[in-house]
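S.,

Sequence below, as promised.
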Amino acid sequence: MRKRQLNDKEIIIFINNKYYVVNKDTLYLIEKFKLNSEISCLSKEIELSKHKTIKIYKRLSKEIKNVKYYDNNIELEFPLKIQWNITNRCNLKCKHCYLGNLNNQQLSSDELYLIADRLINSNVIEVGISGGEALLVEDLPYIVYKLISNDIKVNIFTNGLFLKKFENKLVSIMKKTPIDDLRFSVSIDGLKQTHDMIRGKGTYDKIMNNLTYIINRGYLVTTNTVLSELNCKEVPELYELLHSMGVYKIQIANLIDSGRANKSLKIDSISKKMFINELQKVLIKIGNDRKLLFAEIPDGECDSDVYWFDKYEKKFLQKEQWKCSAGIGKATIDYDGTMYCCPFMKKYSLGNILDKSLSEIWSSKNRYEFLRELAKNNNNSRVCIVAKKRL
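The prediction came back faster than expected:
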């Protein structure tokens, strides 16, 4: 559990990849329950009967609230999560890349370490590191070591080609395997022929070998597949394969119409229906109890129908209620150190983290201008206005 002081009365805690706002008394009980696996030991410590202790635990589980900033625009003096695009270099030219042609620029080692130190000296809880291709950064193992050593959780987004080499270097520095502090998100865009056609010849075998290695090392790995007309027919089979390999979370993402990608790659309504039906057959076949939450591609109103898929049936839940936390609890640092609320709305630059502390940048007037536009264009619903403009 990671925690940061929000104000005099409240603390933000991070448990099981979710944020919660709690008071000091609740935090005390949570820490006690976490440290004591035996209810009888805990009941003695807090001087209550075992029966009452169990009741408190159950009530605590129900009463803990999700972080308020999603709904109540709680004022945070610091972002909880940073997406750091650490380099603008990449070793692939994927057909669907929304970044397009990169300029292959990257800050010096000293500048990268300065950014890492400024993140460490803030109250950030999570840092996602991406690129370009993040694993091309020679100093990355040392930077990740610094972040983890200072109670910051790290998630690395990668094409996976240098995954084994990076992990071996990191473990040699840390003298341990940091499976509780580090996760990987690896791009897989189809079975061998299709993946190689999208990402480059020979990439599939290398990535799958590295993926198998990193899973066997004990890491929780997420795979990300961009759904398009190029791969939609075989993604269900890919899902089955990744599940059999022990992938922790299989993510299927909608294509972003930008950069090298274009609207011709987007799947149409017929292909989408076929994809959903085939995916459901796979879930029935593998017969596991895990569920896949899949949001359909937004319609003209930027709404998505959200379904639970399990081995028995497809259940409609509701319209998509995802809310953007950009500028509220999350920010992006670009490869040159410039910080944005949203990487797709660069007119709201907050400044450069090489010149100012994170707290100074977070108080930028442009952040409040961004939040006003977000609210104005979404009727305060905080869905992605960038997605709306691209429809």
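The first helix runs from residue 24 to 35.

Coffee later?
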